Amino acid sequence: CIRDSYYITIIFKKKRSMIYPIVLYGDTVLREKCTEIKMGDLDIKSLVNDMFETMTDADGIGLAAPQIGISKKLFVVDGSSLEDEEMSSFKKVFINPVLNNEDGDLWEFEEGCLSIPNIRGGVKRKSSIEITFFDENWNKKKEVFKGMQARVIQHEYDHIQGKLFVDYLSPLKKKLIKNKLSEISKGNCEVRYKVKRS
Ligand code: ZN
């Protein structure tokens, strides 16, 4: 009967997560310093679910809230799509993170970003970090991460500070990608995932 199907629709809608369009380079939200989240401020569980879904849909391994237009100190990481042993079990939520310390040797790696499609560039980062954060259940954690895990966190942590990986590139590389970046900021780029074109 109609009543039953109405009821079922409501339950279905409540459970379904949502894929957000990803904000592109040039949008001012990517340059803002994000604000802290207060407990109960927003529906963190459903937001986190949506972020995981958005990231997976775009084949990303990290996604920060400003990348979906929300200027809050929150990011998620999920390396389960990677074959790498260290990364495949790396799935976490970081709420109000504070990077306490970066340590170890600088190492360079070609980074990319869902908000800056089709551009990659070598970024030097320190190999070990200590970070304090809350998980999705508001448990406070203090953990040390190394290598690629540390790098993904450093990249996402930069996002909530309004910083992007292209900021680290050499003046020459910056010159080479200048036009591409300007096209992206106009929404002119080929991507197979959903993006917000201004
Ligand atoms: Zn990024």
Q: What labels would you give this structure?
A:
198 residues; alpha+beta; five-stranded antiparallel β-sheet; 5 helices; 7 strands; binds zinc ion
How would you describe what is shown here?
The protein is built from five helices and seven strands; from the N terminus they run αβαββαβββααβ. A five-stranded antiparallel sheet has the order 2-3-4-5-6, with helices on both faces. A two-stranded parallel sheet has the order 1-7. It has helices spanning 2-15, 44-57, 85-88, 147-160, 171-185, and strands at residues 22-23, 62-64, 74-78, 91-113, 116-134, 140-146, 195-196. With 198 residues, the protein is of the alpha+beta class.
Mean pLDDT: 93
Can you list the ligands bound to this structure? zinc ion
Largest sheet: 5 strands, antiparallel
Question: For the terminal residues, how far apart are their CA atoms?
Answer: 44 Å
The tally of helices reads 5
Number of strands: 7
How are the elements arranged and paired?
Elements: H1 2-15, E1 22-23, H2 44-57, E2 62-64, E3 74-78, H3 85-88, E4 91-113, E5 116-134, E6 140-146, H4 147-160, H5 171-185, E7 195-196
Parallel strand pairs: 1-7
Antiparallel strand pairs: 2-3, 3-4, 4-5, 5-6
The protein binds zinc ion.
Short description:
By secondary structure, the protein is α+β, with helices and mostly antiparallel strands. The protein has helices spanning 2-15, 44-57, 85-88, 147-160, 171-185, and strands at 22-23, 62-64, 74-78, 91-113, 116-134, 140-146, 195-196. The N and C termini lie far apart (44 Å).
